Amino acid sequence: MSEFQKIDEDDYFRLNEIFCIWLMKKQNIHFEDLSFKDAKKKFKKFCKRYNKQKLDALYYEHDKLIEKYQSDIQSKHKWNFK
């Protein structure tokens, strides 16, 4: 595990990909389905769990987590190009 650093609500945009993965994998929610207000509430919950180190170890290895789930964090919208 890389060196642990606590996070807070100011990290909302910086950790958006990590947060989106957590929402999908642990909460079964797509980020784009949340209002901004609801997303901020969920991110606050994510911060608490993250800071208590209650997440799977991979969540603290940001680059590895993103690499593993990169295709999952794309928009769920299916484009209909012809």
From TrEMBL:
<dbReference type="InterPro" id="IPR044688">
    <property type="entry name" value="SCI-1-like"/>
</dbReference>
<protein>
    <submittedName>
        <fullName>Uncharacterized protein</fullName>
    </submittedName>
</protein>
